[in-house]
Design brief:
Elements (H helix, E strand, L loop, with lengths): L6 H14 L6 E3 L5 H7 L6 H19 L12 E4 L3 H10 L2 E4 L4 H17 L7 E8 L5 H12 L6 H7 L5 H13 L4 E6 L5 H10 L1
Parallel strand pairs: 1-2, 2-3, 3-4, 4-5
Helix pairs in contact: 1-3, 4-5, 5-8, 6-7
Amino acid sequence: MPYRGSAALVAKQAATIHRLSGGRFVLGAAVGGREDDYAAAGSDFHDRGKRFAAMLEEIEHIWQDEGGIGPELDNPPPILVGGSADVAYKRAARYGAGWIMGGGTPEMLAEGKEKAVAAWKEEGREGEPRVAALGYFALGDGAEEKADSYLKDYYGFLGEYAEQIASSAATDEETVKNYIQGFEEAGCDEFILLPCNPDPGQVDLLAEVAL
């Protein structure tokens, strides 16, 4: 979020989509780890954490109708705050509806959820945080090649770690099923599977396996 610069603009965009979607929008937000994103946006990469917290606070005020920006909201969109640093869990508890893990294993999700719940309680919030995670998949002909090509390109800035991410993608039905079961057992409320193949038919292939 911080490379976007204006909290007011983000708040208005999110609120508008929330209204147009009939209240179904969820805003996922994190500091991000790509310096090239910040360079392209003309924004400072090194103080992004501090600016992120300030933006979350400003968005909260705007959605409480203290800023007079964007459509009026009876029920603002929930925010899922991402990140693996300790401060990310604190931000999720302070400003968000929960925490989202940006890739990893069910074991990592379970560990992160413990931290998210602990931060939630420290903040004095009722109930428990919403916990989500994402994973990558490709199914059908050329699945492994599609996943390998896409993920190594997208995460190339991470160097050798891009190889690990690419190899973790689910490229067959059994792996997809195991991932879904594993994250459910780890306490994940919502598991988001992102296709590595741009063919819209991937949605149907996933539905045949997951639903």
